[in-house]
Design goal:
GDXG_lipolytic_enzyme, 311 residues, 9 helices, 38% helix, AB_hydrolase_fold, AB_hydrolase_3, Carboxylesterase, alpha/beta, Rossmann fold, hydrolase, 8 strands, 15% strand
């Protein structure tokens, strides 16, 4: 076991990473990453309001992106950001949220969920599921159609979206028209050093996995849980009836193989709408490559629109 995979060390490093991010944001006057994200895709409007959603874990702050169309009760898409289940990076998904609001005609709810090590597993997926249930049940007073609901996320957020879909399957709802899993981690039970990327220096490194995975799920035995590692061979439950899925992997990503395995598992359950691989790209590619981001965001928007019957 590496030093970083020891829970006390992983917790220390994870908290240090959080502090560095906060300090960098303060030095920029709170306008660093947020301003850069808001500046991308300037042709897409940013019409938002803030919302706090009650959950059994803690209140979840969210930013609600409103579509430009005049549909009285548009569909709703719930987005969970990435960050290894440790970093709070909601603003990095601002371009995606604006894109989906504009191109899919949906209300997009970008959720600031609890993160580890302050809130280790199972708090984040449970809170995420609570958020989705609340959104499904409160559309009438909030201005969206909770019966036309999709979920999605990037990286760790994709893992949470998969966990939400699994809980909805097991607990009888709410109905999810589509789950969008964008380069998600779906097998934390397999050591990152046993994973292989199609490039010698992938964005995700084993030391990062040691910190993120251990801070999120300190007990390695619990990483076999179906809400953590649905792509691991130990999870053999029948997924028939789970929400239809769009799964996007990146060619050079360390997580590509587990995404492919889960895509095949969903295909076997009749739940795979499409598995799309982004060629020549690594984990988090859409944060830097505007052209590839636009291409894949447009793909996601088309699938959200088709799944919800958006006008």
């Amino acid at each position: 076991m590496s030093l970083l995979a020891r829970p006390p060390v992983a917790v220390f490093v994870a908290k240090a990473m959080q502090r560095v991010t906060v300090m960098a944001d303060r030095r920029s006057g709170g306008q660093g990453s947020a301003a850069a994200s808001h500046a991308r895709f300037p042709e897409l409007p940013r019409k938002v309001r803030e919302l706090t959603i009650p959950t059994s874990i803690a209140p979840a702050r969210a930013t609600v992106y409103l579509p430009a169309n005049d549909e009285p009760a548009p569909p709703v898409h719930i987005n969970f950001h990435g960050g290894g289940y440790v970093m709070t990076l909601t603003e990095l998904d601002d371009p995606l949220c604006r894109f989906l609001a504009a191109e899919a005609g949906a209300v997009v709810i970008n959720v600031d969920y609890v993160v580890a090590p302050q809130h280790p597993f199972p708090a984040p997926p449970r809170q995420a599921y609570d958020v989705v249930r609340w959104v499904a049940e409160h559309g009438a007073e909030e201005g969206w159609d909770g019966g036309r609901l999709t979920v999605g996320g990037q990286s760790a957020g994709g893992g949470l979206a998969a966990a939400v879909a699994r809980q909805a399957l097991e607990e009888g709802g709410p109905s999810i028209a589509l789950q969008v899993l964008h380069y998600p981690p779906l097998d934390l039970a397999t050591n990152a050093r046993d994973k292989r990327a199609a490039t010698p220096k992938p964005v995700l490194r084993p030391w990062m996995a040691d910190v993120f995975d251990t801070a999120y799920v300190p007990d390695a035995r619990r990483r076999l849980d179906r809400l953590v590692s649905p792509a691991h061979v130990s999870d053999t439950a029948d997924l028939k009836g789970i929400a239809p899925a769009l799964l996007v992997t990146a060619e050079y990503d360390l997580l590509r193989a587990e995404g492919e395995r889960y895509a095949e598992r969903l295909r076997g359950a009749g739940a795979l709408v499409e598995h799309h691989e982004v060629g020549g790209a690594d984990h988090g590619y859409d944060g830097q490559d505007d052209d590839k981001a636009r291409e894949v965001y447009a793909l996601i928007a088309r699938h959200v629109r088709a799944a919800t019957g958006s006008a």
